[in-house]
Write a structure and sequence with these properties.
It is built from eleven helices and 18 strands. It is an alpha/beta fold. It has two domains: about 220 residues, Quinone Oxidoreductase, Chain A, domain 1 (Alpha-Beta Complex), CATH 3.90.180; about 140 residues, Rossmann fold (3-Layer(aba) Sandwich). The radius of gyration is 20 Å and the shape is globular. Bound molecules: zinc ion (2 copies).
Length: about 350
C-alpha cells in the first residue's frame, strides 16, 4: 500500500509499505478515505520531535471504512464508516473512565522514552508517543477499536467529519475551558486550524466578541469571516490594542493556540487577561517555559487550563453540532490533494500563507 513516510528534516516520501494486520483482538483495520496534515505534523516535518525513525508512517487525522475487525470489537463491522480519534486510549483505565482519554495510562508501549510524564499513544507521532503507524496511508491498524472509532451518518460528508479526529475537539475544548458567559470577550492567539476552531467554538458557546491574533493575512481573513476582530501582531501593539478593545480591563479569557513555537504568547496572555480570568492552552508545550510569569498569574487570580485534548469525549457532542448545521468544519480546508502529493502538501502547509489545512485522499 502507499503511505507517507518520514525520513528526516523536510524529507517525507510516498512509499510502498506492507499493509497492516490485526495484532490484538481489540484491533480493527481501516481503509482510509480521507486524511489530513496537522499543524503538529509540521513539528515532525521540521525535525523538532525526537524519537522518529526513518520510514515511520505519518498522520493522526484520518477516517475511513472498516475492512477487518478483531474478535473483541462488537461495536464495529466491515463496511462501517468511522472517524478515529488521534489519541489512542484503552477505555478501561481510571483516566479513560473519567473522560480524560488523552491521559490514558495503557496506550503507550514506550514509557521508558518519556522523561517525567508518559503521554498517551498517538497515531503517527514518534516513538515517544508509542511508535504507532499513522493514517496518511491507504490502510491503518486501529488499536482499542471497541472504544475509539465513531460511526458517521450518511448525512455528514468525509470533509465535514474528518476534523473530529483532532482539531475541532481541540479548538472546542479550549473554548469550553474558558467557561464562557454572555457578554464575554475572548482573545485567541494563533489562527492556524486549531485557532480557527477555537474562534468558532467560542461563538457557539456564547462569546459576544472574539479577538483573533496572528500575522498571516489568510488566517486573519478566515477569522474575520467567522466574526472575529483581527489583530496583526506584526503591525500593532497587541497588549495595547487588547486593553483599548476591552475598556482597559483585558479579555475575559485568553486562548493560546500558538504553543511552544511562541512562548511569548503565553506571557502576553497572562499579562493582558483581565483579573480573575482564564487562560486556556490548547497549543502544545514540552519542557520548561522560560520566564513564566507565575507571580503575575497569582496576583491577578488567573486560572490556567491546559493539556492534550480528550478527543473521544468531544466527538459525539460535536458530531451532533455538525448534524444540526451549527458548524461545517470543512470551512478550514484550503487544499485537497491525492495522497501521492503528500510531500507537496507538507511543503505548502509549512509555507503557511494561503494554506490553512491540507486534506489528502488515498
Ligand atoms: Zn492533529
Ligand atoms: Zn486508558
Amino acid at each position: 500500500m502507499k503511505a507517507i513516510c518520514w525520513y528526516g528534516k523536510r524529507d517525507v516520501r510516498v512509499e510502498d509499505v506492507p499493509e497492516p494486520k490485526l495484532l490484538t483482538k481489540r484491533d480493527a483495520i481501516l481503509k482510509t478515505t480521507l486524511t489530513a496534515i496537522c499543524g503538529s505534523d509540521l513539528h515532525l516535518y521540521r525535525g523538532e520531535i525526537p524519537s522518529m525513525k526513518e520510514g515511520d508512517i505519518l498522520g493522526h487525522e484520518f477516517m475511513g471504512e472498516i475492512v477487518e475487525v478483531g474478535t473483541e470489537v462488537p461495536n464495529l463491522k466491515k463496511g462501517d464508516r468511522v472517524v478515529v480519534p488521534c489519541c489512542i486510549s484503552c477505555g478501561n483505565c481510571f483516566f479513560c473512565q473519567n473522560g480524560m482519554t488523552a491521559l490514558c495510562d495503557n496506550s503507550n508501549p514506550n514509557p521508558q522514552i518519556a522523561h517525567g510524564s508518559v503521554p498517551a499513544g498517538m497515531f503517527g507521532y514518534s516513538h515517544l508517543f508509542g511508535g504507532y503507524a499513522g493514517g496518511q496511508a491507504q490502510y491503518v491498524r486501529v488499536p482499542f477499536a471497541d472504544f475509539g472509532p465513531m460511526k458517521i451518518p450518511d448525512s455528514v460528508s468525509d470533509e465535514q467529519a474528518l476534523f473530529l479526529t483532532d482539531i475541532f475537539p481541540t479548538g472546542y475544548m479550549a473554548a469550553e475551558n474558558c467557561n464562557i458567559r454572555p457578554g464575554d470577550v475572548i482573545a485567541v492567539w494563533g489562527c492556524g486550524p486549531v485557532g480557527q476552531f477555537a474562534i468558532r467554538s467560542a461563538f457557539l458557546l456564547g462569546a459576544e466578541r472574539v479577538i483573533a491574533i496572528d500575522n498571516v493575512p489568510s488566517r486573519l481573513e478566515l477569522a474575520t469571516a467567522a466574526g472575529a476582530e483581527p489583530l496583526d501582531f506584526s503591525r500593532t501593539d497587541v497588549a495595547e490594542q487588547l486593553m483599548q478593545l476591552t475598556g482597559g480591563r483585558g479579555p475575559d479569557a485568553c486562548i493560546d493556540a500558538a504553543g511552544i513555537t511562541a512562548p511569548d504568547v503565553l506571557r502576553q496572555a497572562i499579562r493582558t487577561c483581565r483579573k480573575g480570568g482564564i487562560i486556556a492552552i490548547p497549543g502544545a508545550y514540552a519542557g520548561p517555559v522560560d520566564k513564566f510569569p507565575l507571580g503575575t498569574a497569582f496576583t491577578k487570580g488567573l486560572t490556567l487550563k491546559t493539556g492534550p485534548t480528550n478527543v473521544h469525549t468531544w466527538m459525539k457532542p460535536l458530531l451532533e453540532r455538525i448534524e444540526k448545521g451549527e458548524i461545517d468544519p470543512s470551512f478550514v480546508i484550503s487544499h485537497r490533494l491525492p495522497l501521492g502529493d503528500g510531500p507537496k502538501g507538507y511543503d505548502l502547509f509549512d509555507g503557511r500563507d494561503g494554506c490553512t489545512k491540507v486534506v489528502l485522499r488515498p
